[in-house]
Amino acid sequence: MPISEKVREFVEIKFRPRRNGRAFDDDTPLFSSGIVDSFGVLELIAFLEDTFGIEIDTNAREVRDFDTVRKIAGLVQSVPGSPGEG
Q1: Between the ranges 20-29, 33-42, 43-52, 72-81, where is the mean pLDDT highest?
Q2: What distance, in Å, lies between the first and last C-alpha atoms of the chain?
Q3: Axis-axis angle for helices 69-78, 3-15 (nearest 10)
Q4: Alpha-carbon distance 83 to 74, whole Å?
Q5: Which residue has the higher pLDDT, 22 or 63?
Q6: Distance between CA atoms of 40 and 46, rounded to whole angstroms?
Q7: Confidence at residue 7, expressed as pLDDT on a 0 to 100 scale
Q8: Which of 15, 21, 54, 62 has a 20 to 30 Å separation from 72 between CA atoms?
Q9: Which residue has the higher pLDDT, 50 or 81?
Q10: Across residues 16-38, what is the average pLDDT?
Q11: Contact assessment for residue 11 and residue 39, using Cβ atoms and an 8 Å cutoff
C-alpha cells in the first residue's frame, strides 16, 4: 500500500474528516480545516514513526510539513531509511 494511502486511512479513522460532509483528499489542509489539531499532530507523528520505521526530528519540522496527506507522504519519503527513500 502506498504511503499516502496508509496516511489517508489513518487520518480517516483517527480524525474522521468526512463528518459533517467535509470533502477530504490528499491536498485537503488538515490544520486550517480543523481536521487535525496540535495534539493530533503528535499522534500523527507517532503513527508515521511506528508504521514506517522512521524517526522524525520534530525540531527540524514545522506544522505545515504535516498539513496535507501529500506533504506527509513526501516527508516520509525524504527521511533516510524510509520506504521509498530516494
Answers
A1: 43-52
A2: 18
A3: 130
A4: 11
A5: 63
A6: 10
A7: 97
A8: 21
A9: 50
A10: 84
A11: no
Q: Which three cell numbers stand for residue 73?
A: 507522504
Length of the chain: 86
User: Residue for cell digits 486511512?
Assistant: 9
Residue the block writes with cell 504511503: 3
- The answer for residues whose C-beta is within 8 angstroms of residue 86's C-beta and 6 or more apart is none
The DSSP line for the chain is --HHHHHHHHHHHHH-TTGGG----TTS-TTTTTSS-HHHHHHHHHHHHHHHT----GGG--GGGGSSHHHHHHHHHHSTT-TT--
Q: Is the pLDDT of residue 85 over 70?
A: no
